[in-house]
């Protein structure tokens, strides 16, 4: 072979090799619904029965676990950072402002993790257990189901400051919500669809006090009713709960969007999704069409579950969801 064509062949071979490495790198990032099919065939049924028991005992737990998944994914990606306890060597996220005295359901994840460890030791990440449990919580409260992408690994670190800055506050404007979601690769339709999670669960008075006392875009009778359990000053009533969806807070339906078009949003941020003019048309569509909401919610939560996962040899499979190995 002439030197010139030999050189060209080498360049071509090197190009192919580089392309393969790039493709493998991309593949390593790819999650798959069948990730544990061989290594932990009973995983999905273990998570399902753990969630079924928890939701039967307290329906709200389906909502609490769904929220845990959101608060995990928005901070460093879906890496189970939210599950880490504070310790002498680690500052976790549980005491960040959006989480303190608010996030719940950690014992449910612990109980499921113990059963998964008994069946398949050292195999399944806490991040994946949370993704499955969130799906089952939604489905057990009459919501849709979907194939959960799997193969995430658990972080050894957490970030309280990222939890404080990346999780949107209930006083957010529509523009701020759009931008918080955009910074995670989620568009405004994903924002509205995912906010439909507030069709289940409850909020504390501390989260909706300023809305019921100071917002003008709220149904007057609804505000008066909520004021009965939530006083105007911070203090004794801070922890009192109200359903996020006034119509049906233990049923995953489109009631939340029907609330919003009637100015029955409980959080200021909820009501920003209708009336501010930024995403009104999406909210109105979901209020009319429950099937459209359901299908967009599934698309959006799968997208949310893909935020910066640790894969391959990054991170670890934690033995205890509350602490790094
Ligand atoms: C759009 C921005 C969002 C804001 C500002 C927001 C804010 C809040 C707040 C303030 C609460 C009540 C917390 C308390 O008072 O203790 C809450 C509850 C909840 N959030 Fe969100 N949230 C947002 C998006 C989401 C998303 C995307 C999901 C899930 C996909 C979600 C799921 C939930 C659930 C299920 C509850 C009820 C939890 C329970 O009853 O334990 N939220 N949210
Ligand atoms: C309502 O707004 C007034 C005036 O800004 C403020 O002083 C008050 O603390 C607010 N009340 C609540 C419950 O947020």
UniProtKB/TrEMBL annotation:
- The record's principal subcellular location, in a coarse class, is secreted
Provide GO CC annotations from the record. extracellular region; plant-type cell wall
Q: Where do the annotations place substrate binding?
A: 168
Query: What's a single GO MF annotation on this record?
Result: heme binding
Q: Which InterPro entries match?
A: Haem_peroxidase, Haem_peroxidase_sf, Peroxidase_pln, Peroxidases_AS, Peroxidases_heam-ligand_BS, Secretory_peroxidase
Active site per database record: 71 (proton acceptor)
| Keywords recorded for this protein, A-Z | Calcium, Disulfide bond, Glycoprotein, Heme, Hydrogen peroxide, Iron, Metal-binding, Oxidoreductase, Peroxidase, Secreted, Signal
Tell me the Gene3D superfamilies matching this sequence: 1.10.520.10, Peroxidase, domain 2
Similarity-based family: Belongs to the peroxidase family. Classical plant (class III) peroxidase subfamily.
Please state what the protein is called. Answer: Peroxidase
């Amino acid at each position: 072979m002439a030197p010139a064509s030999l050189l060209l062949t080498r360049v071509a071979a090197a190009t192919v090799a580089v392309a393969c490495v790039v493709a493998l790198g991309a593949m390593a990032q790819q999650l798959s619904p069948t990730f544990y099919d061989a290594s932990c065939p009973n995983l999905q049924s273990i998570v399902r029965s753990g969630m079924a028991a928890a939701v039967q005992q307290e329906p709200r737990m389906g909502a609490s676990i769904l929220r845990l998944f959101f608060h995990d994914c928005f901070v460093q990606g879906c890496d189970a950072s939210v599950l880490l306890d504070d310790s002498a060597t680690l500052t976790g996220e549980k005491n960040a402002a959006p989480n303190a005295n608010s996030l719940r359901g950690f014992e449910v994840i612990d109980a499921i993790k113990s059963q998964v460890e008994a069946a398949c030791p050292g195999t399944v990440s806490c991040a994946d257990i949370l993704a499955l449990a969130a799906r089952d919580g939604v489905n057990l409260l009459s919501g849709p189901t979907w194939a959960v992408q799997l193969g995430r690994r658990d972080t050894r670190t957490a970030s309280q400051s990222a939890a404080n800055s990346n999780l949107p506050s209930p006083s957010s404007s529509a523009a701020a919500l759009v931008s918080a979601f955009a910074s995670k690769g989620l568009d405004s339709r994903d924002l509205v669809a995912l906010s439909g999670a507030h069709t289940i669960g409850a909020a504390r008075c501390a989260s909706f006090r300023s809305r019921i006392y100071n917002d003008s875009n709220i149904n007057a009778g609804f505000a008066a009713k909520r004021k009965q359990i939530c006083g105007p000053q911070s203090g004794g009533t801070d922890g009192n709960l109200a359903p996020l969806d006034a119509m049906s807070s233990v049923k995953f339906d489109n009631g939340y969007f029907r609330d919003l078009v009637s100015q029955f949003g409980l959080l200021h941020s909820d009501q920003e999704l209708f009336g501010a003019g930024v995403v009104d048309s999406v909210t109105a569509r979901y209020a009319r069409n429950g099937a459209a909401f359901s299908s967009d919610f599934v698309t959006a939560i799968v997208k949310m579950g893909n935020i910066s996962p640790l894969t391959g040899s990054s991170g670890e499979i934690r033995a205890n969801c509350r602490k790094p190995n």
